[in-house]
Amino acid sequence: xxxDKHNNLKTYNINISGIVQGVGFRPFIYRLARKYNLNGTVxxxxxxxxxxxxxxxxxxxxxxxxxxxxxxxxxxxxxxxxAEEAAFREFKDFKIGKSRKTEERFQLVSPDIATCxxxxxxxxxxxxxxxxxYPFTNCTNCGPRFTIIKNMPYDRxxxxxxxxxxxxxxxxxxxxxxxxxxxxxxxxxxxxxxxLLLFDRTGKKxxxxxxxxxxxDLLRCGKIIALKSLGGFQIACSALSDKTIMELRKRKxxxxxxxxxxxxxxxxxxxxxxxxxxxxxxxxSPRAPIVLLEKNTKNYPLSHYVSLYNRYEGVMLPYTPLHHxxxxxxxxxxxxTSGNISEEPIAAENTEAFEKLENxxxxxxxxxxxxxxxxxxSVIKIVDGRETLIRRARGYSPYPVKLKENIGxxxxxxxxxxxKNTFCLLVKNYAVISQxxxxxxxxxxxxxxxxxFNHYLKLFNIKKINMAAYDKHPAYASTKFTVGLxxxxxxxxxxxxxxxxxxxxxxxxxxxxxxGFAWDGTGYGDDGKIWGSExxxxxxxxxxxxxxxxxxxxxxxxxxSIKKPYRMAVSYLHxxxxxxxxSKDKFYRFVYDNLPFYKKIISVAEIEAIEKQxxxxxxxxxxxxxxxxxxxxxxxxxxxxxxxxEGEAAIHLEMMADNKVCEKYLLKVDYKDGMYIIDDYYxxxxxxxxxxxxxxxxxxxxxxxxxxxxxxxxxxSIIRKKSGISKVALSGGVxxxxxxxxKCFNILKKEGFEVYSNxxxxxxxxxxxxxxxxxAALEILSLKKGELDYVPGHTSQDNQHK
Length: 802
Description:
By secondary structure, this protein is α/β, with parallel strands linked by helices. Helix content is 32%, strand content 21%.
C-alpha cells in the first residue's frame, strides 16, 4: 500500500468484469464517485472496466464497492469485482478515460436492449425536435449493442455507427457525464443519424410526408412489409386478415408453422391472451422476447391462420422506437415474423432483403444503420415458474452461462448439432453460446455459421482452441466444420444424447448421481444406430450408463420418414398386423379397412414399398426414436401426415390432447441385459384399439402423453429403489412439449424427486453445444489432475484428425 503523507488518501485499483460496457456503466461510476466526493478515473478495457480512485479509508471503500453492486445500471451484469490498494496517485477530479487494451482481452458483451421508457417519452415529445418521431433514438440504457459491434472495446469507431458523425448537440450529450446519453455509442438524432426510407418491391422509393404513417396505413390495408429491425429484417402484416396471412403463408412457403405476433402494449395483450405474472414480467423486460401465451378463446378476434390449431401463440411487445411509432398509428396486432425464406438465415442487409424477400413483401421499410451480426428474436415460455428458452438469440445471446468449473486459460469450442444449431466457446467458466444459427442444411446457413464463429473469435480475442468438441454423427455439417478447423490442439466427438443431459447438469450445477431422460427425434448412437429415447444413469465421476430406451424398430426409407410421419405409422401398423395373426391378408387391406383416411394419404405401391424395406432393411436404419413414436401416433390419429417443419406432427398431437384427462394406458417395461425397454408397440396397439372403438382422439392423445410421463416416473422409481438416485434430468426436443414436461415435473416432484431440465439454453438441439463444452471441460480438468484418460460419452481424436 502507498499512502499520501499529506491527506491520508489511498489509491485503489478496482477491476470489474461482466457485462459492463455499452450499458451506461462508466457514467454510473462517474455519478457514484461524485456522490462520494471521490477523485479518480474510470476506463473501459478489453477485459471490463477499471477504476483508479483516491479513497480516504477502508470503510468508504467498502461502501463504494457495495453501492456499485446495489445501484448498477439495470442492463449491467457484474460477474466479479477485484479491489486492491496501489501505488499512490493523486487525482484532482473524477474523469472518464479513453478505452485501452490490456493483456487479458476476454470481455463479455452486452446483448441488444429494448427501448427504455425515457427514450419512448423522447420520441413522443413534440417539443424535442431532434428526437420527436426519430426511430433510432437510444441511450446508455437501451438500443443496439451486439448487433452493431465489430470489435472490442465497445466504442463508436468499433461499431457500424462509425460512419455517422455526431452533430454538435449529440456530441454535447455524448460528452456530458450528467446526460444519460453520455458515451452512448449509437447516439444520434434527426440531424446526424440513420435515415428511414420506404420502397415498393420494384425498388421505387415512396416519397411521402412521413414513411412511418404511410407504412402503418399500408399494413392496415392488408399489405405485407419488410422492416429492418435490430438484428435483421422482420416481415409484418395485419394479424386480423385471413386473406393477408394466407397470402403470406403462400409466399413464404410456410403452410402451417405458427407466426409470432407483436401487440401494442400489455393491456392489449390481455384482450387476446391470458398472461400470468411471470409471463408479463418477461414480456416487459429489457430483453423483450417472444413469449408463448395461451389464447383467450372466449375473446379471440385474430385470424385463425396465425397459428391454426395451436393453443399457444408467440407474442412480443414493441422493442425498438420504430415499432413503437408504427403502433402509434395502428391499433391492431401484427404478424411479426423473421425476414427470410423458410429455414434460411434472417436477412440483414438492404440489398439482401430486396433480393430474398421481393417475392414475399409488397414494401420495404429500410434504413442505413448496418447490422453487423444478424439475430432472430428470442422465444421463451414459462415452465415451473421460470423462463425456459426455446430459441436463444436477441436479448440473451451472447450472455454466457456461468459454470461452476473453471478451465483457466484453456479454450473449448463446441460445434453444436445440425438442427437448431448454436455453437459454444468456453473460456474460464463462461460458456459463451452463439445466437440461434438454425439448421445447417444449405450453403447460406453454413456461411452464417462460419462468419459468426470467426466474429466471436475476434470479439472475445481467442487465438487458439485447445479442445474442439463435436457430435458423433459423421454427416453433420458442424462435425465436418470442426474436423476441418486449423489451430486446434485436440478434437473429441461426443454422443448426442449424452450432450443433452450434460447441458442440464452444466446449467443447473448438479452434483452427484442422476437419472437422465434424453428424448428427441434423431441422434447417432454409440452402436451406430439412430437413438432417440435414451435413459441414462450418470455417475458421480460423470460416466454415462445407457439403461433404457424404446424397442428398436426400422425407420423405413431413413430420413424421408422424418418428413412423412405416415411412413412411421405404417411401420407400427405393420408390426401390429404381423403380431395380430392377420398376416394372411394383404397388409395394405389391413391399413385401408381399419383406417380408411389413409387411402388419400398413401398409395398401395408405397405401402408395399415400405413393407419391403421393413423386411429387407434396405436404406432403413434401426432406431429407438421417441420423436418418431410421436409422429406415428399423430398420423394414426389423422393429425399430421406430412411435416412442413420439424416437430409439426408432435405439436399437433399435443394441441389435440384434453388436459382434463388423467387416465393412461397400461405400461409394459421389459428388463433385459441391464436395459429397461419401454414397449411402445404395446402402447400403439392400445391406441389402435381405442380408435376402432371411436374413443375421442383428444382423450387418446392425453392418455398417450400421460403414459409417457408415467414411464418416466416408473423407471425413475425403479432405479431409485435400486441405487438411491433421486435426481432426474429431462432434455431433448420431445420435452419442448408443454403437456409432457409439466406432467413429468408435477408427478416426479410429488414422489420426492429433484427434477431438472434446460432453462438457460433450449431443451432442443440449441442446447447441445453447452453439453458438448461441459463434457470437454471435464476432460481438460481431469487430464490436469491426471485422473482420467477420457471422459465417458466421447471419443478423443488427436490434432492430426483432419
